[in-house]
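Follow-up to my earlier ticket, as requested here are the two runs.
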Amino acid sequence: MADELFKVSSFGLAKGKELVSEDFSAVRVIDDLCVGIVCDGVGSAEAGGRAARRVVNYLMNNFKRRPRSWSIEKSLHRFIAGINAILYREGIEEYERPEYVTTLSIVVIDGNRLYGANVGDSPIFLYRNSHLQEISFAHVSDEPGMAHVITQAIGLSETVDPYLFENNLETGDILLLASDGLEKVLTPLEIEAKLKFGAASIVKNASRKVGDDLPDDTTAVVIEIVGESRRQSLKNIDLPIPVRLEKEQEIDGYRLVGPLIRNERTWLAEKKGVRYVLKFPPVEAAEDEQQLDLFVREAWNASRLKAGFFPKAVISRNRTVRYYVMEYLEGPSLKELTEKKPLPVEDAIQLGKFLLHACQFLLKFDLVHGDIKPENIVVLERHGKRVFKLVDFGSIVEIFSIASRAGTPSYLAPERFAGEPINEQTEIFAIGVTLYEALSGKFPYGEIEPFQNPVFKTPKPVRIYNKTVPAWFEAVVMRAIERDKIRRYEVYSEMEYELTHPEKVKPYYPENISLFEREPVKIYRALFVVSTLLNLLLATLLLR
């Protein structure tokens, strides 16, 4: 697990007898990524403490949702520039001068690679081989006697030029981020002596040294590297990538039977009479580190996503070349199964529940499938019942990724064509299109070609094509494929609830439909009542 790779802690104390510190800090471990931040609100600024909190929360939230196509360096640049512009503008608007002002120190660890940035004078240290070294750069005045004056801070001016750095990390390294108050009290040797015990030990030791009367707010974040990520260790293994693969070729006891897809990197194989699927990286991965990263991530996801929604997958320890192994699922794809006749309604309801449960499982890992469609669903027969499996580990990406139309166009939500990130709502749209197609044999918005900019017209109701679909289920499917995301299900659990509670499903009507089209029976009844009353009134007038 990711939290076994890092030992993290964060702690701070206010200066003197103050109750609230102007510092703010946080450290989070998400998947293989570790982010640590310390901000020291500038004391001379009226809103320094609020600025510190704003910056920490803004950066943490943005790194959790950052576009995965962005490098860490690009993310640091964009996010720091973004919060700087926000705080500078708000300072001018509220105070007519910069007042939301704070220093910033941030580190981001991805695998064994350290990325860092700082603005101001809050230091970042690296402790390695019993030596503590500052690796940040203090933005302070060079003028004699003015070393306490910072020349850069977040929110101080319209633009900011952070100091950025990168380095490799080793198991046993310790990173320390601190506000400058720590250095005012403790020597480097005193800091080194307490590093292993975490942030609270360091800050409390500083407080005790000055009789619990700290001259400045004092904060520390400590990150100890205690292991290497599984994904990074998989990448670091020195294994060749086979250039050419052929039928009957034997690799580590697996006999290649035949390729399963056109690029001939996914093969049906046999070993001791049992069939398997072997997935090899693209040939380009031998020279292209990004391609290798993508394959390693795919193999890592395949091996760790152990649930009945997916085929079982393992990464063999004694491989002689780079690949991973999956169980062979002997059954047609949903696309093949429904080419001649639609999926029975009961099976379609079960399919919807299956896909939502699979997506909820992936969400625990901050992942989405990214390419839900009938071709990626295998249908098996188990004890007289149909069982579904979701395949294609290569499409799985982090939620909120901006993957430039990653997936298959006909199943992409309209907002994906506008560059919006993958999320629960876009996956729900793909589930809805899959159900619509399985029940009707049609695409609700027509087949969309790659790089086409489609026009999403009002789709026909499912029951136009399949009269066996009950009204409540049609409402669920149509709401899932809503082109307007405000009218679409927002989260998986919302759609799942309606699939399991048909009696709670409200009728679905397309946007801008007339009242007559929406409630024809009620309109006819109302007209009948009005007509009857008018006739009675006329009859009364005629009898006078």
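Run two:
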Amino acid sequence: MQIKLIAALVTSVLAISAQAADGFVVKDIRVEGLQRTEAGTVFSYLPVKVGETLDADKSAAAIKALFATGFFKDVRLEEQNGVLIVVVEERPAIAKIDIVGSKDLTADQIKDGLKQSGLAEGRIFDKAMLDRAAQEIKRLYFGRGKYAVEIDTTVTPMERNRVAVAFNIKEGDVAKIRQINIVGNNVFPEKKLQGLFQLSTPGWFSWYSKNDQYSKQKLAADIETLKSFYLNQGYLEFNVDSTQVSITPDKKDIYLTVNITEGEKYTVSDVKLAGEMMVPQAELQKLISVKAGDVFSREALTETSKKIGDRLGNDGYAFANVNAVPEVDKEKHTVAFTFFVDAGRRVYVNRININGNTRTRDEVVRREFRQMEGAWYAADKIQRSRERVERLGYFSDINVETPAVVGTTDQVDVNMSLTEKATGNIMVGAGFSSSEGLILSGSISQNNLFGSGNALAVKINSGGINKVYSVSYTNPYFTPDGLSMGYDLYRRDTDTTSLSSVSSYKNSTTGVGARLGIPLNEKDALSLGMSVEHAVLTVNSSSPIQYQNFVSEYGNANNTLLLNIGFARDSRDSLTYPTKGMLQRVYGEVAVPPGSLKYYKVNYQQQWFKPLSKTFTLMLNGEFGYGGGYGTNTDLPFFKNFYAGGVSSVRGYDTGTIGPKYWDTTSGQLIALGGNERVVGNAEILFPMPGLENDKSVRLSAFVDAGAVFGPGNQENVNGVGVNDGLYSKFSFQDIRFSTGMAVNWVSPVGPLKFSLGMPLNPQPSDKKQVFQFTMGQVF
């Protein structure tokens, strides 16, 4: 282009100079050769106007300006009787871009990348852009591990000074990481260090995770992980000397080599606090995770600085700065730290601004805030406010910022940006349960009715055993201080005649009730409720004799007044993907006069989550239930019995089959009765699905379950199997069943899905085993 420009300048200047060595006065200007470009565009770049004198300098400037537009590949200036003639030859326009042979990337994805190189349909064609475009396409494929990609370009002229550009792509195969070498390690085996890397050689889940494909970003993250590992093990002088990435000539195999220097292991000799602390030093001292004599750990150091900063933030010191300054003794391999604390100025919150809530009313969000306007800044209250807004379930994304107020030194604003999601739901679907069979369900619900935060739901669930029809309305802020009020109208039909392993009966219950939720503090809540139920029982000749006796004594229709009370303490960090915290619940119901039945049931559950690492979480769950009759009713009504076994209690055993049984002479089978005592325990190691580490909707687990159901009564032996005498079995540790296995929990778009493979550890001849169990679809 530079040679063409110089030639054009020389030619034009000589052409004009030959006729007017001292320049000439421009009487008119004419442009020739234009096809697409407007003449006004040319006039705007010319440094000379009609009536002015054009000399050699202005001629050179005009040609340079017109070439600089990029519209022309040739420009000449001529003079004829005082008329300046600008002769141009336009560059062709790109009429279309064809992508041929692309499979891994779509044509649109490639064209979007070409735009970054300046190549797009409708733009001016430049051959220099073609090479940049080909390199851009290669870059896109390199990002997908295809280093053997070949790009051939073809430019075809078209009418009206246009061209068609075609990119013929041979993608080639994906290059795989064949080996990762770590050189210089003496303390830790190479295999252990390789296990820290996200990048890996091909494995079982590489087809999904793509971790066997080289990525510069992933390698940088792995190097940082390696550094953190050594620094947390005391190797203060650890260093990554170099990294080499080599690829075989056929561009199919990649070899990574990381050269490291481990250095010596350091211990902490002393820890001190200094600076403006603004809170009692003894209180900050308790937050220090690093102690004299400990092995040096950067993680513990960072955690300590954060704890101290957070503690100061809770008292209004939003901009507190905590720095750990080391004093290294290389001879003794020890290090002492002084935490210098600069609390800064204490600040208070000026305004709380909420943005993005187009449907949800401001008051619905603001009533969840624990940080108040005009109060001292408190980091823990702001975090708690965010958690409470997130628990509403109305928003898909929540971002909180605390910028300083312009022109002040002691004020900040709290800006909460929200992204709303749909809270209404109209669903018609089907699911399947290993115990229920086909489940048809439908619901119309709105959890944020007219943006008020109130919830209304109409649900229908039709399973083979349980059918539920309900209408519910809940006002979470019935009073300004957070008391919730809800109302329910429901009908529940139970038909166990299709279950060969559970006692046969039918029960149809219609009820109406009201409930009240009373928050005691941020984690504790009390619930009260009252409902009136009308139940119709149906038994047959194959039903257990005690079922038939119950109907004979109390009739097949009963009215019950139920009082419900419950207490819950919930400190879990998430409702759907908990990794730490505890859930503790106790709840019960009691049937009181003037109802015809008098009984009580009490349930207790404690669930505990403890992170074992960044990916593994220990979950312990314990449940206990007890019930009975009082007054003239001596027993718990049979349709209120407890059951165990199945995907939600002790996996590996058929649903509801653990516990007391009786011998059904008609069918010649042992039939589960249930009982008035229930004990269930679960221990699980929860971890992400390989390849889906960042997906918070699906988790795997390895579990051990235990459980049993008991009741008053005596046992006898029938055909070599211990069964009861028509009542229940007595409590015995020998009757507790155990199982172990693997499970998958997935909060899918259609509802929660649970799958388990359970192996009973101590099954008895009377037990029914079911290794694979699952529930698909929402069961209300």
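The only thing I checked on run two: Residues 1-21, 427-439, 713-728 have pLDDT under 50 and may be disordered. Let me know what else you need.
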